[in-house]
């Protein structure tokens, strides 16, 4: 059984690596949102189970995704006011996650989940393939990538 678990884990890791390598910048941002939302939900589960150590690990992972994935990918020179606003939202989310970890506060986790789900929905609603049919592909790519460096 342990061998099966290792094989599935390796398959999942290789599958994710392949998805990342072949993903568009737009898809990478959506994947980051998926990862942080999954980590926060896992933290909530561990908090409810009283497993504080695992809750802390999950929140640490969520903060890392926000800070080292979403936030660091912003290019404020290109993204302008939108990038500045997103940076503030990501900073707020990371701070709230830290406070939720320190206080074991599920309400704060729920607030951050709501914020990130709304941002993910907005980002996911942008469909570069559909927009490419209505305008110049270079203009579409530029408008999508004005988000940041992703």
TrEMBL record:
Key words of the record: Bacterial flagellum biogenesis, Cell projection, Chaperone, Cilium, Cytoplasm, Flagellum
Domain of life: Bacteria
Source organism (scientific name): Deefgea chitinilytica
Keyword Cell membrane (UniProt): no
Protein name as it appears in the record: Flagellar secretion chaperone FliS
Gene coding for it: fliS
Taxon lineage: Bacteria, Pseudomonadati, Pseudomonadota, Betaproteobacteria, Neisseriales
UniProt cross-references to CDD domains, sorted A to Z: FliS
Cross-referenced InterPro entries: FliS, FliS_sf
Cell location: Cytoplasm, Cytosol
């Amino acid at each position: 059984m342990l061998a099966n678990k290792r094989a599935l884990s390796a398959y999942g890791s290789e599958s994710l690596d392949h998805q990342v390598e072949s993903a568009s910048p737009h898809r990478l941002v959506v994947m980051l949102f998926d990862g942080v939302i999954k980590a926060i939900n896992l933290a909530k589960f561990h908090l409810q189970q009283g497993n504080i150590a695992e809750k802390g690990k999950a929140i640490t992972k969520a903060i890392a995704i926000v800070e080292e994935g979403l936030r660091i990918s912003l290019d404020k020179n290109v993204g302008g006011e939108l990038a500045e606003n997103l940076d503030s939202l990501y900073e707020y989310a990371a701070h709230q996650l830290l406070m939720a970890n320190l206080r074991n506060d599920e309400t704060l986790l729920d607030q951050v989940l709501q914020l990130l789900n709304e941002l993910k929905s907005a980002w996911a609603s942008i469909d570069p393939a559909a927009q490419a049919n209505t305008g110049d592909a270079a203009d579409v790519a530029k408008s999508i990538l004005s988000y940041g460096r992703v």
